[in-house]
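Teaching note: in complex prediction, the entire set of molecules is handled at once rather than each chain in isolation. The prompt given to students was simply: 'Predict the structure of this complex.' The entities are:
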Amino acid sequence: EPEVTQTPSHQVTQMGQEVILRCVPISNHLYFYWYRQILGQKVEFLVSFYNNEISEKSEIFDDQFSVERPDGSNFTLKIRSTKLEDSAMYFCASSGPQGYQETQYFGPGTRLLVL
Amino acid sequence: GENVEQHPSTLSVQEGDSAVIKCTYSDSASNYFPWYKQELGKRPQLIIDIRSNVGEKKDQRIAVTLNKTAKHFSLHITETQPEDSAVYFCAARVFSGNTGKLIFGQGTTLQVKP
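The expected output is the structure of the full assembly:
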C-alpha cells in the first residue's frame, strides 16, 4: 500500500537557522498539507497546497514558513529562521485524486528540535 | 472560530469492555469526520471516517456515529484489546478554497488493561 514518506525523521538545529523538511506524497494525490504537533498537544493545520499554489494557511504559517513542490514528487516545508517554539513534530499529508480529496494520509513525521 | 472539542482526555478500560470517545465541532459546514489512531512516536493512522450524509458507520469492532443537528460525533470501540491502547484523535474537515483542512480534537489517551 502506498504511503507518504518524510525526511529526515529527526532534525536538530540552532535557533535562527533555516531548515527544510521533505515529503514525498502518495503518487497520484493532488492535495498536500503540512501539520504540526507540539509534544503532548493536538495536531494543528499549517498549510494546504493544490495546483502549485497555497490553498489555505493558518495563523501559525507566517512569513518564516514557505512550501514548495520543486518537482513532480517532492513537497517541502521551509522554515527560514527557526525559533525555539518551532520545536514540534511536523507531519506531511496528502489526499486525492480529484474528487477523492477528503481522506488525508499522514507521513511518519519529522521531529524538529530547535536549540 | 473553527474548533473541535474531544472528551474524555484519558480513558482506561478493562480488556473486553467498550470505549466511547465523543467530539463536538463548531463549523456547521463540516462534512467529513475522520478518526485517527496515533501510537507513541508514530504517524496518525486513519481508522474510520464518516461523511455528513450518513448517521452511522461500522467496521468490525469500531463504529462511528454522527449527529449533524447537534454537531456531535462519537467513536465506539467494542471488545477492546490491549493493542487498542493509543491516542485517538477526532477531526472535522473544513472545506476551504480547493482543499479541506482537518481541525483536530485534543486527543484521548486510551489505555486497555489486560
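Point out the following to students. The interface with chain A takes residues 32, 34, 36, 42-46, 49, 51, 89, 91, 93, 96-107 of chain B (CB under 8 Å). DSSP finds no helices and eleven strands in chain B.
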